[in-house]
Every structure is written in structure tokens, then in C-alpha cells.
Amino acid sequence: MTGKSCVSVEQFDKELVLELCKFAALLEVTEIASSHPLDELIVITAFFEASTRTRLSFESAALRLDAKVISIPDGKTTGSAKGESLADIGEMMNAYGDLVIMRHTDTNSINEIHEKLRLPLINAGNGTGEHPTQALADWYAILKWNPKLKGVVKDDEKITLGILGTPGSMRAVRSFLEMSLLFKENIKEIHIVSELADPLGAILTQKLEEADVHPHITNDINEVISELDVIYMNSIAFLGDGYKTLDSRFKLHKGSKLKSDAVVLHPLARLDELNTNLDETDHNLYFTQAHGAVFVRQALMISMLDRFDRLPDDIPFV
Questions:
Q1: Segment 112-127 mean pLDDT
Q2: Which of 109, 145, 205, 260 has its CA 20 to 30 A from that of 242?
Q3: Could you give the CA distance from residue 145 to residue 137 in angstroms, rounded to a whole number?
């Protein structure tokens, strides 16, 4: 990833995901702040769309590595509110920092800013497009939960995934599904629970067909819940010019007929589809998922900015 941008799950293969997750795990258990890995570098967090966890996660990751952070917390405060193009904003950013992390309501925003931006860019969510670092955080949590999935497991150890949401219009769900294809040899079946008859759309459908993966689509979580090992859910999507809540009738709670060892992931923020009474149960993997995102993003930033030589000499790379 050195010197590259991170804009799409398509950039990753399984080996790269595993290496980044191993690196994140090292960072999680190693004191590195005193080594100041990103010292003298400036990270620009440009959030033209509302964000809590993703923005704070990236800024925490950067600051804990001793980078300086300058931020656009609200697109309404930028020149874009007066009609300035993202291309021109990208040109200006070339002089202001060393790495750009951008979230935007427009799915085409990545292409627009790349017209003139020469700095490495991390896509923190582009409209209904993608959210690749969320998918990395998702699979980091899953691999910590079940380390066997790093290799190839026996048939009776394969997992069944359940996805509550609409991958075709929910970027976090889309990115999770696409990254899951890298681990398809360890996935027994994928169930997609959606109110829509076609929750995938043409592009995702083609990618799944090319991967020879054929998910089961249903509109009733109760039809499949007792089969699921990992449940990935979401409730909010940015569609057009506003937020829409989807699948609100597909709810999980302590009384749901979950397998005893099933885990639940959610990129958050949640509404009433994920009851807080699951928070204190072993099904809760979503807080681990959120906490681990800081270390995944640290691993990515160190890799993209090639600051490996700033890490402690005794960090146990293998």
C-alpha cells in the first residue's frame, strides 16, 4: 500500500487483508506512541458528510501516531458550499498535507477529487459506493473472533453469513460483502435479508456470479437466523439527498433465536434494529469491531506513508 490510495475493496486480495490485520494486531498490543511513527506529517480529514465513529477513529489513529490533523468537519463550511469543485479542492490539499481521508455524499467524489489530488487518499465513504476501511475493520474483528479463518478450514468449520441490509445501496454492507468474497472458501453460505426483491443490483450480482457465490435472499430474518454464525447488519443509508432507514422491521434482541455462539456485527450508528440488551451478551462483536478500527486504520496509514522505519526495533514482525 506504500504511496497508494485506498479507495476500493477491489484493491485487496486475501493476503493483503491478512497482512494488514496482523499488523493491526501488533499495533494493538505494542506501545508505539513514543516512537512517533507519523511525526512531522499532516493528515487531512475531509468529511463532507456527517460522521461520528469513522472521523473520530481516523483522527484518534493519526494523533496516537503523532501526526498533526487538520479537519473539515462539515462540508457546508468549505468552498464547495459556494460551488467550488472537488478537483480544485484536491489541488489545494496538495499543499496542505501528506494524506487525505475523505467522506462525501457523492458516489463519484473519489473520481472528482483525484482529477488533481496527488496525495494518497483514503475513501471513508463515498455516497452509496464503498467504505473499504470499514470492511477491513469488520474482518479484523471476525479474524480475532475465529483465527482459523485465516487459513482454509474443514467443511464442518465453515461459517454461514447473514447480511441484514441492502448491499446495492448501503456502502458498508457492500464493502463487507465484497471483502467476504476473499474468504469464500471458508464460507458455507451467505443469506441476505432485505425488504427489496433485488438488494444487490447489477454490478454486485455480476461480481458474485464471477466469484461463483450464490447468496440466498429472503425478507424474513426468522427464516434463517438459527443457521447464522456471523450476522452483519446496518440500518442507515445515504440515498440521493438524505438518509433513509432500511430494514427497520428486521430486529435483533436478546430473545432472538440466535445460535449460542453466533456473533453480531454492525458498523453503527444503530437504531432500533439492534437492541441494547444484546450489548452484555457474547453475541456482541460490534463494540470490538468499532474499537479495532483504530488499529486497522493505523496499520493502513503507516503502510501508505511508509513509516515502518519509525516503529520500535523490537516490534515482532514475522
A1: 96
A2: 205
A3: 12
Could you report the per-residue pLDDT of 162-173, keeping only the tens digit for each? 999 889 888 999
Contact present, 127 and 238 (Cβ < 8 Å): yes
- Chain segment 13-42, per-residue pLDDT in tens: 999 999 999 999 999 999 888 899 999 999
SS3 state at 39? coil
**What is the residue range of 247's domain?**
132-290
Cell of 220: 424474513
Q: pTM, whole model, 2 decimals?
A: 0.92
User: Running DSSP on this structure, what letter comes out for residue 199?
Assistant: S
Query: Residue 245 has what DSSP assignment?
Result: E
Beta strands 242-245 and 236-239 are antiparallel
Burial of 237 (0-12, 13-18, 19+ CB in 10 A): buried
Q: How far apart are CA 71 and CA 113, in angstroms?
A: 16
Minimal CA–CA distance to 261: which of 170, 158, 145, 179? 145
Query: How many structural domains is the chain composed of?
Result: 2
Distance, in Å, from the CA atom of 173 to the CA atom of 265, rounded to the nearest integer, reads 11
- For 219, residues 6+ apart whose C-beta sits below 8 A from its C-beta are 193, 194, 195
**Main-chain dihedrals φ then ψ at residue 32, nearest 5 degrees:** -120, -10
DSSP 274: B
The domain spanning residue 95 has which CATH number?
Answer: 3.40.50.1370
Cell of 203: 454490478
The cell numbers describing 294, all together, are 483504530
